[in-house]
Structures are given as C-alpha cells and as structure tokens.
Design brief:
This protein is an alpha+beta fold. Helices cover 20% and strands 33% of the residues. The chain is built from seven helices and 18 strands. α2 runs antiparallel to α3. The protein is elongated, with a radius of gyration of 33 Å. The chain starts with a helix and ends with a strand.
Length: 329
C-alpha cells in the first residue's frame, strides 16, 4: 500500500461535482487556444468549485467570483485556481488526476496565497476527493504525502482571522476656527457656559497656570479671552449622561494664544465617569497631552499654547468609544 493510498483512506474527503460546477467549467474551458489549456482550465475551475462547496458546507464565507480564476484574461494567461475566503485571503485549489503522486504548483501562485488545497479527480470527472492542504509552496511539485488533513484547514483559517480591535470612533467634526471666536463668531454647537451648564456653574475656576514672575502677568488686562462649551455624547458608555467640553483661549500676543481645555459633567452628575480621557493631538495626530478622570474628579483639564494657523484636535474617550473635535488657531 502506497502512502498516497493511506492518505486517501484516512483523511481524504469525497465531494460531489455539481451540475452547476460542470457547466461553469465547460463555459470557462470553451474557446481556449489548445487542448492542454482546455483541460487545465476545466480542472482548475472544478477544483475551485469543489473547495468552495466544502467551505460553504462548514460555514466559511467565500466569494468565488472575485478570484483570478474567474477573470477570463488572467485565466487565459496564467495557470490559476484561486478562491477568495472572505476577510482572510486566497486559497489555491490545485487539481490532480487519480494516478498522480505529486501535485503541480505553478510559480505564479507561490505568493499571495493563504494555503493550497489539493483536489483529486477520476478519469471521467465523476467524483472529486479533497486530499488535504499545505500552508506554503516554494517548489513546482509537492508530494501527496506532504499534505495535512483537510480538517486542519479550519484551524489555519482561524489563525489567520485574527481578532480586530474595534474602535468606535464617532464621526469627526468639521474644523473649528478659534480666531473667529475672538471676533464673536461661533458655530451654533458651541454655547456659553451658562447656556450649557446652567447659572449655578458659571463661577467655575478657569485659570491658566502661570509663572508669577512672567512678564505676561502684568499685562493680563490687555489679553483678549473667550470661552465656549459643547455637549459631548458618548452614548451608552456614559450610561446616558453627556459631558461638556469647554475651550477657553487667551490671545497673549499676535503670535501666541494660550488654550485651556476642560471636560465637566453635566446635569445632575457631580463627578466624571472614572477613566474618561481627555487627549490633545497635534497636527500629525500624535498625542501631545492627555489626562484621565479618577473616581472623584469633577473635571479634568489640559493647557498649552499655540501659534496662528496651528492645527490640533481634542479627543474625549471612554473605553473603545471616542469623539474628536478639530481646531485651528
């Protein structure tokens, strides 16, 4: 008994060749320039259909029509039998005849494949057997004895389908021009502190940290300043409670603006949700400053200075949900 016979007996999987598969294979093979090419395209197409049938049977989603084997131009020019596994990659489905001990893997399919499945056909194309698979190929011929059981293919696909961390980034807002605030021009979403937080919170301490010896301290009364607040809703992460994003700016000089960013609870809430983050991103979207609420913080804040036309973003985040506001000074 040869090793190939043992492989077939132990873990090969007989599968039907459907009438639909036969019709597609006949259509693709028709019009090929040589008898050899007719045979190649017919077997390649049947192999793809058989593997597709198997994957559908075990609940793996595929898209049989997007592969090169379904492209008439590529099919004519190359020896391809690929099948797209949705969100994972392409399997190469290689046919062999029942009397063959080795399977041919064309060099053009040695890359851009997540694996190679070998399908055996009898002489009259009445039956197909999925013999097994290998993960990679670097030679034109592989021995049937090198194949792994087809059942292991599921493990291979599971390994490749790595879990993707989903960050629920709410829609990014249009850019807010802060220089317009100094001219009393505001978008309607930016409200006064009184309108958003109520008169009881109008005396909140908005103070820029300064060096007492700074020359700027003596000229504070010449500085133009303004502040506005915006409601930020992170949905279910805040259990239905929104927060207020407050931005205050002071134009220290034509070339320098001090900016204070705060996040406050709204409504009847006294404290912020623990682990709520306030993040300032620079123009390249790298983190510039960040703060995080603790269990009894009634606000968090960040302070920095910028130049005219400088861009930055402010992100408020909790868990995997965030919202970003974009600004230009």
């Amino acid at each position: 008994m040869t090793y190939k016979t043992r492989v077939i007996e132990e873990f090969s999987l007989p599968l039907p060749i459907t009438e639909t598969a036969r019709a597609i294979a006949q259509k693709f093979a028709a019009g090929q320039p040589t008898p050899e090419k007719v045979e190649q395209v017919r077997l390649n197409t049947l192999a793809v259909c058989v593997v597709n049938y198997y994957l559908e049977m075990i609940g793996i989603t595929t898209d049989i029509t997007v592969g090169d084997s379904w492209n008439p131009v590529v099919r004519l020019a190359a020896d391809v039998a690929d099948l797209e596994v949705t969100d994972i990659g392409r399997l190469e489905c290689r046919p062999i005849r029942a009397d063959q001990e080795n399977c041919y893997i064309p060099p053009e399919v040695w890359s851009d494949r997540i694996g190679y499945v070998v399908v055996e056909f009898d002489e009259l194309l009445r039956e197909a057997k999925v013999l097994g698979f290998i993960q990679t190929a670097a030679t034109e011929y592989i021995a049937i004895s090198e194949l792994q059981p087809i059942e292991n293919l599921c493990d291979r696909l599971s390994q490749l389908q790595q879990p993707v961390e989903v960050i629920h980034e709410l829609p990014r807002q249009g850019i807010t021009c802060l220089s317009q605030w100094l001219e009393n021009v505001f978008d309607t979403s930016w409200q006064t502190i009184e309108a958003l937080l109520g008169s009881t919170q109008t005396n909140l301490a908005f103070s820029f940290r300064r060096n007492d010896n700074s020359q700027e301290t003596s000229s504070q009364h010449h500085e133009a300043s303004v502040r506005r607040a915006k409601l930020i809703d992170l949905g279910l992460q805040l259990a239905g409670h929104s927060v207020a994003l407050i931005v205050e700016l002071r134009q220290v000089s034509p070339q320098k603006t001090d900016i204070l960013i705060q996040v406050h609870p709204t409504g009847s809430q006294t404290y912020l949700q623990p682990l709520l983050q306030l993040i300032v991103l620079d123009e390249s979207e790298e983190i510039f400053l960040e703060a995080q609420a603790r269990s009894a913080d009634n606000y968090i804040q960040l302070q920095f200075s910028g130049k005219p036309k400088e861009k930055f973003s402010v992100k408020v985040a909790l868990g995997d949900v965030s919202i970003t506001e974009n600004f230009v000074i």
